């Protein structure tokens, strides 16, 4: 991995950068709340220990010593921080407000400055820099922000330490040792913060891209499913009439034959349709076919029934579980309804209007092979209706 890939902020599209900033703002608020609670806990413990030590020496709990005052200030600031962060959380768009961000960064920077002040106080008593180191490390690990923001947060605390250390530390050797050790430590804290920020940002953007990819894939799958359903529907529907075609008819019957059932088939043919097409044209012929399809849609409306275009000017109707008398009545209703359309057909040998001939048959079947045999019988019944002079209803049904 190249060093610049570790240190620099990853290249992020503008719209993703906005989402990242919002996410980091909310995440930093949660981390700061946790940090503030931990600080309050530890500082209260230190205050109790300080009070116990003071009581053991002076028989009083509070004597106003510097450490107790610093602990108290930090507890108050941590409590204030919790209140401010909760106030910010109640405003969903607060992350877009520049002043809200400044307040958050100021609170974080205060913890570092406090650590620097305690470290300066420690030089008189202990000479160590533990408070500064601990606070600096915690902020570097817990707070995720751009390089510019992190350096802005670091700057005040480092300035306090650089200015104050020569004043409070009498030994030049100790002071130089502190500066050298802290320089190395601060560099690695900064490096860790950059690596964590880049890793966190990269992972978040990857999650966004993955989510978008999954969403896009899901939408494509849904679109494909809709298209497949549409194609399937088109494959079983007759484009001209809007009723099922032959494939749709067989699919419906196949799905309905879960057990042996009584089925009535009506085969229907438009009388002298070739003469109609030859004299009126195919476009007018299509209009006639559409009109007949609408009649079937309107008339064939009983449960467990289907009307389909079988091919050309030929139609087929299937009705389950009705008796022969009802079938004959349905066939007559269809025939009369077509005749009542009064579609002119001056070249018909039957009538001055478009008419149909219908043949029907009823039987019990339970498999598709038997259906094909029944269709043949219905076709023979249609032939018989034509032999009777067309515009008739015929059957080969044997009376039961």
Based on Cα principal axes, name the global outline.
rod-shaped
Structural class: alpha+beta
Largest sheet: 5 strands, mixed
Q: Gyration radius, to the nearest Å?
A: 45 Å
Please describe what this structure looks like:
Strand 4, helix 12 and strand 5 (393-395) form a beta-alpha-beta unit. With 400 residues, this protein is an alpha+beta fold. It folds into 2 domains: 3-215; 246-395, Reverse transcriptase/Diguanylate cyclase domain (Alpha-Beta Plaits), CATH 3.30.70.270. The chain has 12 helices and 5 strands. The chain starts with a helix and ends in a 5-residue tail after the last strand. The radius of gyration is 45 Å and the shape is rod-shaped. Strands 2-3-1-4-5 form a 5-stranded mixed beta sheet, sandwiched between helices.
Write the layout of secondary structure elements.
Layout: H1 3-7, H2 14-58, H3 66-89, H4 98-125, H5 130-142, H6 147-168, H7 172-235, H8 246-256, E1 261-270, H9 273-280, H10 282-299, E2 305-311, E3 314-320, H11 324-339, E4 356-365, H12 368-387, E5 393-395
Parallel strand pairs: 4-5
Antiparallel strand pairs: 1-3, 1-4, 2-3
Helix pairs in contact: 2-3, 3-4, 4-5, 4-6, 5-7, 6-7, 9-10, 10-11
Task: From the structure above, extract its key features.
400 residues, alpha+beta, Alpha-Beta Plaits, five-stranded mixed beta sheet, 12 helices
